[in-house]
Write a structure and sequence with these properties.
With 364 residues, this protein is an alpha/beta fold. Helix content is 25%, strand content 28%. The site of flavin-adenine dinucleotide has 42 residues, from helix 1, strand 2, strand 8 and strand 13. Its EC number is 1.4.3.3.
Length: 364
């Protein structure tokens, strides 16, 4: 059997999902190289900071929609079959406010809060919330069954599954994408390198993608559990502040979010923003705390800041030859890296197959 030597650069949700899918084919010998691995918390590593849930945001008819559409069945199957993966089903409530102009966070949520969204036939139990049950400042609202992922548990599960399939994990901090081709665990040159370096694709030699920029997300993780997940189209506090709540599976705590601060690289939690996040969460979900307790009733585990790896024009999933090395890119997933993970990784795997076929044809 011919073997394919493949290096995946990056161990966030994009790299790990791609490695997990590639490792399912015994012909693929997969090495995963990364500066940061599951267990690390670092501002350069977005994946551990995510909520993370499935609240689709892709424009109808776009690649983004196709990737999110393709990801739901995969996440659902993992949730049902592998409780140890750290994902559970949760009810989600989505609220769209009349007064929100389509800017910043409201624009980010436009397709999620749309009253007749494409995803209504994808997620189970979708139904509009009748208008007589909504406050006067709400345009529309809907509920459906979604999932909430516990990223530290889920990322470690992806590592475990890939290792079980023969993948080898190594730490590395590369200056140039082509260096990855010489770091395959067999000592042989890689046939193809998958670039899953997220926001760092802006700085990685051979890639230097100037279209990459961060959207800073600040969260408060608490022990309180309000039940269902919630998201609101916008807040009154600032155009780049958000309001969402989700409780992670298997004891991961409840994420109170958030913010969507474009081009803000600050890794330090802003405590006045944290106070606004907590106050807004209690306003929409008063059962987070005992009556009258207010913010003091929240039992804080930690404050967190992550940088969503945004890219002008959307994620880059394409193949390229760089100094003779075949590279498949899979980065730039903004605030939807988990909910589009399987769709994007599937596309990247198809491109890897194309590269391998081109190579084998060239050898004939
Ligand atoms: P990263 O997780 O950043 O991983 C990049 C990897 O590349 C790391 O392993 C890093 O060490 C490695 N790397 C980079 N450069 C080098 C180098 N030179 N050499 C070696 N290794 C390198 N998404 C959802 O779908 N649902 C949500 O609910 C959600 N909520 C979010 C909330 C917050 C607050 C934030 C910040 C994000 C959220 N996201 C959510 C978005 C999601 O977290 C990201 O889209 C996703 O984590 C990006 O993953 P990635 O693997 O592409 O990048």
């Amino acid at each position: 059997m011919a073997t394919n030597n493949i290096v995946v650069l990056g161990a966030g949700v994009s790299g790990l999902t791609t490695a997990y899918l590639l490792s399912q084919d015994p012909a693929n010998k997969v090495t995963v190289l990364a500066k940061h691995m599951p267990g690390d918390y670092d501002i350069e590593y977005a994946s551990p900071w995510a909520g993370a849930n499935y609240m689709p945001m892709g424009k109808a008819g776009s690649n983004h929609e196709a990737w999110e559409r393709a990801t739901w069945p995969a996440l659902k199957a993992i949730t049902e079959k592998y409780p140890e993966a750290g994902i559970h089903f949760r009810k989600a409530f989505i609220y769209n406010r009349k007064k929100d102009p389509q800017e910043d966070i409201a624009a980010f949520f436009t397709d999620l809060v749309e009253p007749n969204p494409w995803y209504k036939d994808v997620v189970p139990d979708f139904k509009p919330i009748p208008s007589d049950q909504l406050g006067p400042d709400m345009d529309n609202a809907q509920e459906f069954t979604s999932v909430c992922i516990n990223p530290p548990v889920y990322l470690a599960w992806l590592v475990g599954q890939s290792v079980k399939n023969g993948a080898v994990f190594k730490r590395a901090n590369l200056k140039h994408i082509t260096d990855a081709a010489n770091a395959h665990h067999t000592g042989k040159k890689a046939d193809v390198v998958i670039n899953c370096t997220g926001l760092s694709s802006k700085f990685l030699g051979g890639v230097l993608d100037e279209k990459m920029y961060p959207a800073r997300g600040q969260v408060v993780v608490v022990r309180n559990d309000p039940g269902p997940m919630m998201a609101v189209s916008k807040t009154d506090d600032a155009p780049d502040e958000a309001l969402y709540i989700m409780t992670r599976a298997v004891g991961g705590g409840t994420i109170l979010g958030g913010s969507y601060q474009k081009n803000n690289w600050d890794a330090t939690p802003d405590l006045s923003l944290a106070n606004r996040i907590m106050a807004r969460a209690i306003e929409i979900a008063p059962n987070l705390v005992e009556k009258g307790q207010g913010v003091k009733g929240l039992d804080i585990i930690r404050h967190g800041v992550g940088l969503r790896p945004l890219r002008e024009g959307g994620p880059r999933i394409e193949k390229e030859k760089i100094n003779g090395v075949s590279v498949v890119h899979n980065y730039g997933h903004g605030g939807f890296g988990y909910q589009a993970s399987f769709g994007c990784a599937d596309t990247a795997v198809s491109l890897v197959k194309e590269v391998l076929q081109e190579k084998s044809r060239a050898k004939l």
